[in-house]
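Format notes (please read before filing issues)

Several people have asked whether sequences and C-alpha cells are stored in separate files. They are not. Every record keeps both together, in the order shown below: the sequence lines, then the C-alpha cell lines. Line labels are part of the format and must not be stripped during preprocessing.
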Amino acid sequence: MRISPNWLASRPLEFACSSEGLGYAQLSNYTATFREWGDGPPLIVVPGLAGGIELVAPLAELLSRRFRVISYQLRGEEDSFALRRHFGMADLVQDLSEFIEWHGLERPHLLGLSFGGVIALEFAARFPNRLANLCVQGVGARLESNLVKLIAGMVLSGYPLPADNPFVNQFFRLLFGRNPQPIGLVDFVVRNCWHTDQSVMTHRFRLIRKRDLRPRLNRIQDPVLVMSAPRDVLVTNSSLLDLCNNITDVRFVHLASGGHLAFLVQAKRVAQEVIGFCGE
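Then the structure lines:
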C-alpha cells in the first residue's frame, strides 16, 4: 500500500507519547523498554543522544501508517547507574543486534537519528546484509571540532546543571537551525531531552566526539538513505560528503530546513522519504 503525500500532509502532528504498545526486551546487559506503533514491514528506529523514545514518537506515529515501527531505549536511558559498568559503541551496536534477534526479525528496515544514526551505521558495517534498508538523519562520517561542539562538550561533561538551565536550553534550540519554531515544539524537545540524565548524555557525547566512521563505511552492503538539513550545527558539509562518498549504495536527500532536529521540524517530509525509499 502506498500513502500519498497529500494524505500524509493532512494529518496532524502530535507531540506526545502514550504507553500504548509498550514492552520490555530482556537483553544480555539490560532490559530495553520499547514501544511499537502500527502494522506492516518492521522498521526499527534508533533514538538520538537524548530524549529516547518520547522524542522520536511524533515521527514514529507518521511512519506507522506504512510500517510496524519499533523504537527502544538505549542502554543507560532509564538507568544512569549502567555507566558503572563501562560500555562503548561496540556494546550499543551489540544491544541493537540482540534487540532485533529478540523480536525475531529477519532483515528489518532501520532508521537511525543523530547519535542513533552512528549506531545504525556501525551496525550495518559490522553485520552486512542484516538489513533491508538503512536510513539516517543528522549524522556525518565524523564529528568535527567547532565552537558549538566545543561548548556542547564543556557543558555536558564539565559540571552538573539544573534541567531549567537557560544556557543549555538555548543550545537545544540551536539544534532546530535558525528558523523560529512553535513554542510547543521547543518545549517538547527541551522537556524530553532533560529526561535523559546528564551523565548519560556526557558518556554518549564522548563516544562520538572523536569517532571516525570512514574506515568502516565501505563494509556496508545495504542500501542507505542519508537525509540532511542545512544549518545542522553537528554535521558539516565535508563530514556529510565523506559519509556519502564512502558508502557503496547511497541516496542523498536534502531537507529544506530543520537543522539537526529535522526529524521533528520536517517529520512529514522525513516520513515520506523513508516510506518512498524503503518501499521501492
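For reference, the curators noted about this record: The radius of gyration is 17 Å. The CA atoms of residues 231 and 259 lie 5 Å apart.
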